[in-house]
């Protein structure tokens, strides 16, 4: 399913989702970024002195992510980006340094990184000034991955430009003075750019086109959903542990059940049962 065929995907998806928003939500979505950012910074593992120094760190990270235009706000329907970081002191005689674990999540994707290391001084600001720092590099890298995931829902590999941006950040991080963790981030990006993961990204093209056209062309949309699930099955046959695919199922299995629950053809539910045996009892309720 190529972009030439589904070039209007983003408009259809946006209209479909906007239809379900309240008047206030529609006004907000029309005038602000569709990325609803929620940042939580946990300081309890820090010394009391460091807690005092970092007391406004959460607000700074929130502003850094939420107030920046990462993409054209007209491109995407509203979505949540949740960012949580747990800080620990990293002793240094020359500056304040921190070790952190990070969890960042979009609607149906999440990334966990426990190898974050960066320096940050009391009174320091976080700004998009073109100057690389370890902290900004980590934030930028994962925000671009989440955004890429959302753009892939609009059409064939539409998220690629944001993966390219993540790669640019990666190259800076690998050769920075805080290079710890960037080897694992490189492995993650290589996975996302792999042939099998590309099939997963192509699957989302089918699935979300179906979601955008379900009300207008229900039978055809169902065909696309079944095709998407067959592609997902192929992806998991090649890599049964692919976390992104598992997260996709966790986020969308109920949606599929609701669409196909009254159909005689249970192909979609049968595929889900094969892919997600832990929920086999739930699927059996719809199959028998």
What labels would you give this structure?
288 residues; alpha+beta; 2 domains; four-stranded mixed β-sheet; 14% strand; elongated
Describe the structure.
By secondary structure, the protein is an alpha+beta fold. The protein has 2 domains: 9-193, no CATH class; 202-287, no CATH class. It is built from 12 helices and 4 strands. The chain has helices at residues 9-18, 23-31, 48-53, 57-66, 134-152, 160-174, 182-192, 195-213, 218-238, 243-260, 267-275, 280-287; strands at 35-42, 79-90, 97-105, 110-119. The chain has a 4-stranded mixed beta sheet, covered by helices on one side. A hairpin with a 6-residue loop joins strand 2 and strand 3. Helix 11 packs antiparallel against helix 12 (280-287). The radius of gyration is 21 Å and the shape is elongated. Mean pLDDT is 91; it is low at 2-8 and 15-30.
Furnish the topology, listing elements before pairings.
Blueprint lengths: L8 H10 L4 H9 L3 E8 L5 H6 L3 H10 L12 E12 L6 E9 L4 E10 L14 H19 L7 H15 L7 H11 L2 H19 L4 H21 L4 H18 L6 H9 L4 H8 L1
Parallel strand pairs: 1-2
Antiparallel strand pairs: 2-3, 3-4
Residue share in helices? 40-55%
Indicate the structural class.
Answer: alpha+beta
Strand percentage lies at: 5-15%
- Give start-end ranges of low-pLDDT stretches: 2-8, 15-30
Gyration radius (Cα, Å) is 21 Å
What's the total count of β strands?
4
Shape by Cα distribution: elongated
In the residues, how many domains can be counted?
2
Read across the widest sheet, the strand sequence of neighbours is 1-2-3-4
Query: First CA to last CA: what distance?
Result: 33 Å
Mean pLDDT: 91
Q: Secondary-structure element order, as H and E?
A: HHEHHEEEHHHHHHHH
Can you summarize the main beta sheet?
Answer: 4 strands, mixed
| Total helical segments | 12
